[in-house]
Amino acid sequence: MPGPFAGGDCAVPGETRPAPALGQHNEEVFADLNHTVALTNGAASDPSGAPPLAGVKVADFGWFMVGPQTIKPFSDFGADVIRVESAARLDALRLVGPFQDDVADPERCGEFAQVRTGARALNVDLSTEEGMAVARRLVEWADIVFDNFSAGAMKRMGLGQEALRELNPSLIVLSSSGQGQHGPNAHGKGGGGHYAALAGFNELTGWPDGEPGYLSAYTDFIAPRFNIPLLLAALDHRRRTGEGRYFDVSQYEAGVHWLTPSILEYTINDRIPNRGANRQPDAAPHGAYRCKSDRETDRWIAIAVRSQVQWRAFCDAIGDSELASDPRFSTLEQRKANEDQLDTLVEDWTSRHDAYEIMHILQRSGVPAGVVQTGEDILERDPQLRQRNFYQRLDHPALGSYRAPQASFRLSDAPCTLERARLLGEDTYEVLSETLGFSDAEIERFAIAGALK
């Protein structure tokens, strides 16, 4: 199975013990329990009410989607994040849209505005010597330096691991490149769609008799889930020891970790998982079923029946209790053997009902079911997201009023209040003058040299 998910200057973890048998470590856990309780009972929350990451300083060289997905939780929970960008080389995320009123303006990109909340915007052209002088001062100020450029890019700019550590010995550095900083394919070009294919996602996506599906930049949303805890752990380590850390994270390898069950299926059972469409071996019916729709677009419901109790509840909920004893479907094995016929019967019922009506009927009966929602549904109709204030409304100079998502978790003593995404270079003077301590004469010299574009 996959080993450590990050390289760097830490000791590589040794082999971990296997998954335990049920209750195997009861005595060990109970022996430590009283000691653990004694240690934690005296802990108190921060009485100041400051956000949990207040005081943490992040120099963010990241771009596209891995960058903001990694750093957004830090800016949203109080860290001072300074985002390095340049009009000479715009973040590609500003260019993909969708755009407000369909005007292709990098300041009107909705996706950028949603994921780049909270960070301050510093315009610096790193191809100039004056721009590099600003970057070096930023590194000296920071606790964390993050990038997700291709392998070797930071080093070629003069900001490799050794140079960064020389500027700031206690710095935490994380580089999240496509395939890591070393190895025969480290310098290959690509994006999340390519790394998802390499990791094996496409081979598992699609219909059994069709070609592999395409998940687009799937690893862009996986690698950050590895990056974030690494950075938080490194902050905790530095708090206790004063030591910085360097991490080399491969987006490709993070994707492989995500598919560990498929790898174990091969290494343990000598089976190569393949495309199974919407079906799973331990559930039937299991899939997305067409529903009644009064729109031009189809509506669908996802249903997953995993036990005999759920199967009987499903039959009762759709008003066909005799279906539960139909010899074609009375057991999971029989339902799997006749799954095509079963799916036809299920869709015959779902196609006559509204998707939300079906979801509520089945959920009340204890059957897992969920509407296949559109973006409009999520923003306008989902009561769960509304009650949890998942989307917060912000005012933006170019976009006007828009909504951005907060984290999917809640901290009882630290509510998350978002700040809007910044315009390109909006905070450049403030950062240079007040945060990094450059004089007006120096800032003027940088501007004349073209370093602040």
Quick description:
The chain is of the alpha/beta class and 453 residues long.
Plain-language structure description:
- By secondary structure, the chain is α/β, with parallel strands linked by helices.
- The chain folds into 2 domains: 236 residues, Rossmann fold (3-Layer(aba) Sandwich), CATH 3.40.50.10540; 92 residues, formyl-coa transferase, domain 3 (2-Layer Sandwich).
- Helices cover 37% and strands 13% of the residues.
- The strands form 3 sheets. Strands 1-7-6-5-2-3-4 form a 7-stranded mixed sheet, with helices on both faces. The chain has a 3-stranded antiparallel sheet with strand order 8-9-10, with helices on one face.
- Helix 2 crosses helix 8 and helix 7 crosses helix 9.
- The longest helix is centred in the middle third of the chain and has 19 residues.
- About 1% of the residues have low confidence.
